[in-house]
Amino acid sequence: MISYLNLILRLTIWFLLTANFSVANIIIGVSIALILPGGRPKAPGALRDWLRALGEVLVAIPQAYLEAFEMLVRPHNHEEVKMEQVKAGRTPGLIFLDIFLITFTPKSIVLKYHQRGLYEVHWLRPSRKR
């Protein structure tokens, strides 16, 4: 089941990048998605992690609109860079989704993913009162 989710994720990224749903592009996308390496073996609880991550994607969409509106109303001039720990047992696909979720919202962006299990995240915060 998890390999199907990885295949769907790869095809979704392919179609977002190409914005072309012709038969030739679908064949190319499926071929590339199947050729890419699968990564490490999947953990038994990975399906639950995928479903939780997809739920977080659905929550991130309205959150992004709220953050954008908040930035229009209140200035966000304070910047900080923090290191955040990757959740334990994440597959490469789930790590990609985590990075996507952090970067999708307007107040944060992942600057770098460290192989030892850390994200370097740049945050915008509201201005501090003096």
Q: What brief labels describe this structure?
A:
130 residues, alpha+beta, 2 domains, 3-stranded antiparallel sheet, 4 helices, 55% helix
Structure description:
This protein is of the alpha+beta class and 130 residues long. It has two domains: 38 residues; 86 residues, no CATH class. It is 55% helix and 18% strand. The protein has four helices and three strands. A three-stranded antiparallel sheet has the order 1-3-2, with helices on one face. Strand 2 and strand 3 form a beta hairpin. Helix 1 crosses helix 2 and helix 3 packs parallel to helix 4. The longest helix is centred in the middle third of the chain and has 28 residues. The protein is globular and about 55 Å long. It starts with a helix and ends in a 5-residue tail after the last strand. The model has no long low-confidence stretch (mean pLDDT 83).
